[in-house]
Amino acid sequence: DPDSGDNGRLQYSLVGGQTNEFDINEKTGQIFTVSVAGKAGTFYLEVQAADQGTRRLTAQTTVNVTVDSSSSSNIVMLVLNQKISAVERKRVEVQRVLEEKLGWNVYVLNIYSKESDRNSRSSTDETQVDIIAFDEAHQEVPAEDVKRKLREQRGAIELGLQEVFSASVSAAVAEAPAAPAAPESTAAIVLGVLLACTFIAFLAYVLLDLTRKRKYGKQDLVKKVDIMEGIDNPWADDKNGSLKSLEKPEHMNN
């Protein structure tokens, strides 16, 4: 709006569509998600801009927001030593500083405290800011490149944020925690362990059985040898169990 004064000061609002899932910054027109977790598809919003003159002039447009169920791997976490309430109030200014120092289009996706208690929003002095950067071709900048640039420009970023918060600010890149294993992966691991244990038990049984057979086989051989040694001539034992002379009868010699 080219007018000056109140006639040129615009206020944005959501006047129609699926407004329960979104919110808007009335000063900047930036739209935020509120309750689209787990949802996917296209949402339609009617956005109005109105000046603050005596006779308020308005204009409206439709904004189509497409929510993709897939998650980006290029989200970077930045930790600020500021209260979450202060960071939320300065969200736009924080984003502006990051864009100026990084040279990319930066979007602040989420602001939250590590504390789970909602009362900590006013007392915690450490806030995590999730950001994602886009280059001039509107392509996501790889997370590693964003982290490298954040570390290189850390001093300049902290000076810029110091002006925003009117206090000394430290900005550190945080590493994302390892994602928990999926139930399918956990089940596969457990099954693999069980199969391995079963195989080891079977192998141990086979080895034990072979050892036992060898042991008893040797004992049987020793017994047979002892029996053989206890009989002077086993061939002298006839069917009735009596011993006979091995001398051939005379008629056999003929």
TrEMBL record:
TM region(s), chain numbering: 187-208
Cadherin domain mapped to chain residues: 1-77
One Pfam family in the UniProt entry: Cadherin
An example Gene Ontology biological process: homophilic cell adhesion via plasma membrane adhesion molecules
UniProt keyword list: Calcium, Membrane, Repeat, Transmembrane, Transmembrane helix
InterPro entries found in the cross-reference section: Cadherin, Cadherin-like_dom, Cadherin-like_sf
Originating organism: Loxia leucoptera
Entry annotated with the keyword Calcium: yes
GO molecular function, one term: beta-catenin binding
GO cellular component, one term: catenin complex
Protein name: FAT4 protein
Keyword Membrane: yes
